Each structure stands twice: as C-alpha cells, then as structure tokens.
Amino acid sequence: MKLVINASIQIQKPINEIFEALVNPEKMTQYFISESTGKLEENKEVKWKWPEFPEHESIVNNIKIVENVSVSFVWDNNTTVKICLEEQADKSVVVRVSEGEKELNDQNLEWFSGNTFGWANFLACLKAYLEYGINLRKGAFEFMRS
C-alpha cells in the first residue's frame, strides 16, 4: 500500500491571482512561508524558511510550472508535491494538492498525518489570504517552537 496525501479547497478568486500566490514569494510569505530565495520557476531551486521553525530550511527543486494550471516540485529529496487549479463555471477555482507517494510504515504514517494537516492548513491560509487579506498562519503555531 502506498500513502498519498490529497487535500482541496474552493477559492472565490480568479485563477491568475491564485496561481501568482502559489509562485510569488512576496505573496507566499503572507500566508505560508517566512522566506524564500526566489520565485518558483522551472529548472530553479529555491529554499524556504518557516515562520514557526526559523532554523529549518526546505529545499524545493524539480519545479514544473504550467501557468494558471499547475505547480509541482520535489522537496525532502524524494517527495513530489503537485498543486492543480481547476476553474469552475462561476470562475471560482478548486485548488487540489497531492503529495507522495510513500510506502506504508510507521515513519511514513507520521509523515502522512503531519503533512495532511499541513496541506489542509496551507489551503485554508491561502483562501483566507486571497479572499479576506488575513494571514491565518501568523502566531498560529508559536506553541510548536518549544
């Protein structure tokens, strides 16, 4: 059995605004990461830092971009993340995130649990930022620093 994370949400914003929020670090730091070494672009590598774990850095590479359709990348050396945008008839957009796959074992079950929570939170934060200008992540995970 393989473990694959799937999460999705519908956002009431134009697809190009959502896409830009997924690749532009100036926007990403308003709802997701605290720092980035650059914009997500094909054949580039970027490093992300996290607001609640400033000492931790994630390397993001193997970036693939289809403008206003999808963004995919590899992080933690072997895990692929794909974010797909599906415009609806009313011009809202369903954002779908998938991450994986990993073999079923105790370590990967912990990964599955933590990252499923993480991607659901990512989507809620993206929606709050784009629709209401709110950074839900700010201060939300201070308790995890200790």
How does this structure look, described?
This protein has helices at 15-23, 25-28, 106-132; strands at residues 2-11, 35-36, 46-49, 57-66, 70-75, 79-87, 93-103. The termini are far apart. The chain is α+β, with helices and mostly antiparallel strands and 146 residues long. The chain is built from three helices and seven strands; from the N terminus they run βααββββββα. The protein has a seven-stranded antiparallel β-sheet with strand order 1-7-6-5-4-3-2, with helices on one face.
- DSSP, total strands: 7
Distance between the termini: 35 Å
Give the overall shape, derived from the CA principal axes: globular
- Content of β-strand: 35-45%
| Series of H and E elements | EHHEEEEEEH
Main sheet makeup: 7 strands, antiparallel
What's the topology here?
Layout: E1 2-11, H1 15-23, H2 25-28, E2 35-36, E3 46-49, E4 57-66, E5 70-75, E6 79-87, E7 93-103, H3 106-132
Antiparallel strand pairs: 1-7, 2-3, 3-4, 4-5, 5-6, 6-7
Provide a quick synopsis of the model:
By secondary structure, the protein is α+β, with helices and mostly antiparallel strands. It has 3 helices and 7 strands, in the order βααββββββα. It has helices at residues 15-23, 25-28, 106-132; strands at residues 2-11, 35-36, 46-49, 57-66, 70-75, 79-87, 93-103.
Keywords:
146 residues; alpha+beta; seven-stranded antiparallel beta sheet; 7 strands; 27% helix; globular
